[in-house]
Design goal:
single chain, about 400 residues, alpha/beta, Rossmann fold, 2 domains, seven-stranded parallel β-sheet, 19 helices
Length: about 400
């Protein structure tokens, strides 16, 4: 009964996306990407590994595992699927997998048809995408499935008594790799196989430091100024930092990278920060007197942290902060809003004096001043080094285990 209700809710979700299509760009892309989907999902007779990511963020979390598998076991074929356009549109030509598809909506019929097409020898789900019709069908076919980089809290929705039939499906997973001991203990009590591996994102952001793109003209724009990077910011974040920017733009070079790069948000930044802030795509030799840069592209922010001295990460005045790992890997102390409690890395970095949470513009200025002090900046750097050293290596643990399972060729 519970699985039937779950399936009904999935179908209703699909109908809602159809209704929203004329009004929502993401819904429009979601629908367009799935048109004629079965003509795109080609039959694979090699029994590949199926790896699924909800969106781009989850993909980046699992990316180190995918690349480690391909480098160590090059004959292992991989089918990568996405639920969201944000992942598929950017990574549809990803070189380390053999096929990239949208995942059809999680109905029983689609699960049967999809697995008949790709015939995976194993399935790996990155983080939180629990698609129970697919999982149930994998169980029925005795195809092992795994989850990586998971975090579970005691109030997780699957731990509610009335959802026990869904939890029973998850209990049949071969292994769930979790980020922390608390998640492991929770799953252990629910009789679910788990192993503490850590956060694969940390391996990814560390690896990225050796692959950074260079932006020669930015060095000349910065000059001798300190650089504060505002990453993945929202309008609420702008309200907190705008007054400080107006007061200190002669001392600091600022780089703004909004989470939403729509024309409306880019214009809003220009209106609120008031100064000479060209777009990243428009900087040239004639913009040498710029007060900063507005990033109007996707994919550059992680590379731009190399030019920073401090970073403010947005989202903390909304549902929760965006990733702080990219600036941390670049050695930058980070500042963010108050809604960070769900993110263990934020709490740990605060304790290490490498991060600060702020609730208003006064606290933001105090945090900038704190990290501008040489002694505090050095202490923050030491804390970052401890954090990265403590948490790297999740990818090695996952791939070593999978190799032992004999599912990698």
């Amino acid at each position: 009964m519970v699985l039937w209700l779950y399936s009904l809710s999935v179908k209703i979700y699909g109908l809602l996306i159809l209704v929203l299509r004329p009004f929502n760009k993401k819904a429009k892309k979601w629908i367009a990407g799935r048109q004629n989907i079965w003509t795109r999902i080609i039959q694979d007779t090699t029994n590949p590994i199926w790896i699924h990511a909800a969106s781009l963020g989850e993909f980046e979390q699992g990316r180190p595992v995918i690349e480690a598998i391909k480098k160590q076991f090059p004959d292992t074929r991989i089918v990568l699927t996405f639920f969201s356009p944000s992942g598929y549109e950017i990574r549809k030509n990803y070189q380390f997998v053999d096929h990239v598809f949208y995942l059809p909506l999680d109905t029983k019929k689609n699960a049967v048809k999809f697995l008949n097409r790709i015939k995976p020898r194993a399935a790996i789900f990155i983080k939180y995408d629990f698609w129970f019709n697919y999982l149930d069908e994998l169980n029925q076919r005795n195809i092992p499935f795994y989850f990586i980089s998971c975090v579970f809290k005691s109030n997780h929705f699957l731990f509610k008594p009335w959802l026990s039939p869904l939890l029973e499906i998850l209990q049949k997973s071969k292994m769930i790799f979790v980020q922390d001991i608390h998640s492991h203990e929770l799953l252990e009590r629910k009789q679910i196989n788990s192993m503490v591996a850590g956060d694969n994102r940390i391996d990814r952001v560390i690896d990225l430091q050796g692959e950074l793109k260079k932006y020669p003209i930015i060095d000349s724009l910065i000059g001798t100024k300190s650089v504060v990077i505002f990453g993945s910011i929202w309008p609420a974040d702008l309200e907190i930092v705008a007054a400080w920017i107006a007061e200190f733009k002669e001392k600091y070079f600022t780089i703004f990278a909004p989470h939403d790069i729509s024309a409306g948000m880019l214009k809003r930044i220009q209106q609120q920060v008031k100064g000479n802030y060209p777009f990243l795509t428009g900087i040239n030799n004639s913009t040498r007197d710029a007060d900063g840069i507005i990033v109007n592209t996707i994919g550059d922010l992680a590379h731009l942290y190399q030019y920073g001295t401090q970073a403010y990460i947005g989202g903390g005045f909304g549902k929760g902060i965006h990733s702080i790992l990219e600036p941390i890997a670049a050695g930058l102390p980070v500042i963010f809003g108050p809604h960070h409690q769900k993110f263990g890395e934020a709490t740990e970095l605060i304790k290490l004096s490498s991060a600060q949470s702020v609730s208003n513009s006064i606290e933001f200025k105090q945090a900038i001043d704190f990290f501008s002090n040489n002694s505090n900046y050095k202490l923050a750097g030491e804390g970052i080094h401890k954090f990265l050293s403590r948490h790297r290596g999740a990818t090695l643990k996952v791939v070593h285990y999978l190799a032992g399972e004999k599912i990698l060729l």
